[in-house]
Amino acid sequence: MNKFTVLLLGIIITLISCDARDKINRSPKDILKDKNLLESFSERVSYFPKEYAEVKTDTILSNGYHVNVKTFTDMKSSYLRQFKHDSINYKYHYRDYKAQVVARQNKIIFNDVIDKQYILKHDKTVSYYMETSILKSVWVNQEESLNQNKLVLNILFTQPKSNTEKLFELVIDNKGAKKLINLTDLDHNYLTA
To answer: Which of 43, 81, 111, 163 is least surrounded by Cβ atoms within 10 Å, i.e. has the fewest?
Structure first.
């Protein structure tokens, strides 16, 4: 009985001494740092859009142009906007969009992907803007297409979480010759695509 009492007393003393008094004066942040868990709790990562998205538009104009526009999410490319608030690092990934455009007038006159690289290939002056922007929309400007008897595409880029936008116009004639116009700039910078 005496050995049992000593063993029981030893177990009780061991349990009482493990009461985590050393952690009472430590902050939760310090405890997470010690266990290498702080990163997972202090960072919020979001993707916009969260999933793949695709929109197809077919347009037939009375002047003979037939245009197919497929706008889709580029799941591999995004613009990262990060900031810190209340010791939490926020990382917002705004995924880029691309637009596959096929235009015909009796034959294919334009077949290309419109994205940041397409614009930068024809207008290097907007490179500062393209670093922080995403493609918002590509559409057929029906009124201008009929007025000019050419195919006129409007291309809109925007900077996420701001009101800054740049509008481009891509004019394509019936032989496939292209002209890219930066409509946002006041001097109407005309570029031959």
So the answer is: 163
